[in-house]
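Quick one: Probable nitronate monooxygenase from Anaeroglobus geminatus F0357, structure tokens please.
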Amino acid sequence: MEEKKVKLPELKIGKLIAKVPIVQGGMAIRLSTAKLASAVANEGGIGLIAASGMPFEELRSEIKLARKLSPAGIIGINVMVAAREFRGIVATAIEEGIDLIVAGAGFSRDMFALGKESGTPIVPIVSSAKLAKISQSLGAAAVVVEGAEAGGHLGTNRSSREIVPEVRAAVDLPVIGAGGVLHGEDIAGMLRLGANGVQMGSRFAASVEANSSDELKKVYLRANKPEDFVLVHSPVGLPGQAIRTPFSEKILLEKAPKPEVCDACLKKCSHKYCIIRALTRAQQGDVETGLVFSGRRMQEIHEILSVKEIFAYLRRETDAIPE
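--- reply ---
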């Protein structure tokens, strides 16, 4: 008898249908721009532009460029609810005809009304069944369920593998599992737990198309032991998962330099250090005084691949898994 193979399902969010159930995590600041988002969209996944910290005009031009590079693909934005300009960023993206809005680092009831007016799917990032149910009642089109394995701001210390089945039982929405998804087996595992798709950040952060300096990509490849990863406290008011660097060491010791000037980029900020500038410094290649957010499984990534190569190996891996 012929062995049945795992077939990756399509991912439906509202009227959108992604041929491959993979959402590329929106990684700020400026790691996920049009080049990365369009490359993922062209492979049949959902590409996200990281909009936090982007002036409105820059966001407009990134969305236009992504559309030009992927005319038929699905392009969304990822934005931090904690950003002071959150509402303006969402409104700007909707004006530009963005396909969907993914929102994390906080929760906003207001965004659902914006989405309803324009018919734009709103997809909050949640870390509990309770918040998933609230999202559904407010009109969310889907939820991204993020666990403690993820990089960046975290809303829980529990594994996404524990939370996804709870969310699946609580809502009728598409559920997208996030955190520690790297290989075909991880995707198949999330689908078995009841997810309709997955979100992957770290694997795409270490891609040719990620808009980060070569120095930053070298830091990803050097982080290959558990002790290379630390949880730092972010001025946003949440823990953040990062790679151990001189700057993250300073944060842990509470010796990170306080901002000399403040752009008032967050609704609430502890002002212990400037997170946007720290992330930007790393993105531009200053990894000594920059903050490098990353999921813990980055330690399993040993080469920088193109998005096309990443999708090809994920297909090969999932094809090899018996159903």
